[in-house]
Amino acid sequence: MPWDGICWCNPPYGREIGKWVKKASECFNTVVMLLPARTDTKWFHDYIYNKAEIRFVKGRLKFGSSKNSAPFPSMVCIFRKKVAILISVLRGINIVLRGKYGKQL
């Protein structure tokens, strides 16, 4: 299933989480993910570290009316739209981009 527009994702926190993070890192749109702050994992280093914006959540999250908080720290990772990044890089080296009808991007 394609992820279109700006996507919010709170993936299952099991063994498959790396597949979800990989998909977000490969999207050409913006994806925001709530994840466990597992900085010691392969998926963190392969797809997030130095590749996405990271916001660490202070304290531990508590969902709904739960009396207990999560047993792990959390982070919000933002994978920015890659086209916007490319445009800003190309503008930095003075390349003019034109859209569908010749309008400058």
Give a short summary of the structure.
Helix content is 27%, strand content 18%. The protein is an alpha+beta fold and 105 residues long.
Q: Would you kindly provide a written description of the structure presented here, covering whatever features stand out?
A:
The chain is an alpha+beta fold and 105 residues long. It contains three helices and four strands. It has a four-stranded mixed β-sheet with strand order 1-2-4-3. Strand 1 (7-9), helix 1 and strand 2 form a beta-alpha-beta unit. Helix 1 packs parallel to helix 2. It starts with 6 loop residues before the first strand and ends in a 13-residue tail after the last helix.
> Which blocks of ≥5 consecutive residues have pLDDT under 50?
none
What is the general shape?
A: elongated
Tell me the total number of β-strands.
4
The radius of gyration is 17 Å
Q: What is the residue-averaged pLDDT? A: 84
As a percent range, the share of helical residues equals: 25-40%
List the helices and strands and how they pair.
Layout: E1 7-9, H1 17-26, E2 31-36, H2 42-48, E3 53-56, E4 74-79, H3 82-92
Parallel strand pairs: 1-2
Antiparallel strand pairs: 2-4, 3-4
Helix pairs in contact: 1-2
What structural keywords apply?
3 helices, 105 residues, alpha+beta, 27% helix, four-stranded mixed sheet
